[in-house]
Design a protein that fits this description.
The protein is an alpha+beta fold. It is built from eight helices and 15 strands. Helix 1 packs across helix 4. The chain binds 2-oxoglutaric acid (AKG) and fe (ii) ion.
Length: 294
C-alpha cells in the first residue's frame, strides 16, 4: 500500500549542487547522447564532485527497492540532469517527445498536451517493444496554484487488487490492443498487442496508456473477448482507487526518478495560471551490466 514516506526523499546539499552545476557548465548536452560518453562523464562527476557518487548510489538503490525516489535541491540544468539520471541506466534520446533526437524533453503546456486536462495514469513509451525502464522528471517550475500534482500508482498494488477479483490473469495475456500514432498519410493505423500486466518471480510490471488502449480497442477491440474486456474495465476502475494513489507536488529543484515498468504515473489538472509549469524529462534504458543479457 502507498505509505506516508513514499517515495523516499533525499536532499542534495548546496555544496554538491553547486559543484555539480559548475561541472555541468563545462560540458555540452550534444556529447551526452553517446552511452560511452555518458559513462565517462558520470565517472568524472563522481570523482570531481565530493559526495555526489554516494547520493546517486543511494538514489539508484531506492529506485530498485522502492521504484521511485525524489532528490530535492537539484540544480535545474540539462547536463546535471543527464549526469544524475545516467546513474540509473542509459539516457535515450529516442522517443522522448515529438522531436526525434531529444536527450532532455521540456514538458510544458502546449496545444497537443494542454495542462488544463489531467494526464491520466499511464506508463511512457507503451508502443515500444521494450518500453523505457526508468524516467527522470526534474521540476523547473511548478504551477503557482499548487495544482498539477504528480500521481503515482504501483503496478504490484493494482495486481494484488485484481488478483483478489480473479481478473489478474486475463490482463497478463498479450492481446491488448495499443494504437500506434501514425503519420496522417499512412494507409491504416497500426495496432500492436501486449499484456497490460506481467507478473513473474514476485515482480509485477505494467504497460498502459489510456489514449492508446482506448483507440486500440476501437480499432481492433472485436478481438478482445468478454473476459479480457471485463478485466480491462476492472483494471481501469482499480486505477481510480484513492487508496492505491500517491499524489504530491513537485517543487522547483525536485528530481523524481522512477521505474516506468513498475509504476504508473500521471498528473492532476492545472488551472490557467499554471500554464508556466515546466518539467524536464529524460527516458532511460536499463544499463547493461557486464555479462548480463541484452
Ligand atoms: O506533467 C507531468 O507531471 C507528467 C509528465 C509525464 O507524464 C511525462 O513527461 O511522461
Ligand atoms: Fe508520462
Amino acid at each position: 500500500m502507498a505509505g506516508m514516506h513514499w517515495p523516499p526523499r533525499h536532499v542534495m546539499s548546496n555544496s554538491i549542487g553547486e559543484a555539480l552545476a559548475r561541472f555541468s557548465s563545462a560540458r555540452h548536452a550534444d556529447q551526452l547522447r553517446d552511452e560511452g560518453v555518458q559513462r565517462a562523464v558520470l565517472d568524472s562527476a563522481r570523482e570531481e564532485v565530493a559526495g555526489l557518487g554516494d547520493l546517486l548510489d543511494t538514489a539508484a538503490a531506492a529506485v530498485r527497492s522502492a521504484h521511485a525516489v525524489i532528490i530535492e535541491n537539484f540544480p535545474v540544468d540539462d547536463i546535471a540532469l543527464a549526469v544524475a539520471a545516467s546513474a540509473l541506466g542509459r539516457a535515450d534520446a529516442g522517443y522522448n517527445g515529438p522531436r526525434p533526437d531529444t536527450l532532455v524533453h521540456d514538458v510544458v503546456d502546449s496545444a497537443v498536451r494542454p495542462y488544463r486536462d489531467p494526464d491520466p495514469l499511464h506508463t511512457d513509451s507503451p508502443m515500444l517493444r521494450r518500453p523505457h525502464a526508468y524516467l527522470a522528471l526534474l521540476c523547473v517550475r511548478p504551477s503557482p496554484n499548487g495544482d498539477g500534482e504528480t500521481v503515482l500508482v504501483r503496478a504490484a498494488d493494482v495486481a494484488d487488487e485484481l488478483a483478489g477479483q480473479d481478473r489478474l490473469r486475463p490482463l497478463c495475456d498479450p492481446c491488448y490492443p495499443f494504437a500506434v500514432p501514425h503519420d496522417p498519410g499512412a494507409q491504416r493505423p497500426v495496432v500492436i498487442t501486449n499484456p497490460i500486466l506481467t507478473s513473474a518471480e514476485g515482480s509485477t510490471t505494467v504497460r498502459y496508456c489510456p489514449v492508446r488502449v482506448t483507440a486500440g480497442v476501437q480499432l481492433a477491440g472485436h478481438r478482445l473477448d468478454a473476459q479480457h474486456l471485463d478485466a480491462l474495465r476492472a483494471f481501469e476502475h482499480t486505477l481510480q482507487r484513492p487508496e492505491l494513489t500517491t499524489s504530491f507536488l513537485l517543487r522547483a529543484g525536485d528530481l523524481l526518478l522512477f521505474d516506468n515498468q513498475r509504476l504508473l504515473h500521471g498528473r492532476t489538472d492545472v488551472r490557467p495560471a499554471g500554464a508556466s509549469r515546466h518539467l524536464k524529462r529524460i527516458k532511460l534504458r536499463a544499463s547493461r551490466s557486464p555479462g548480463a543479457e541484452a
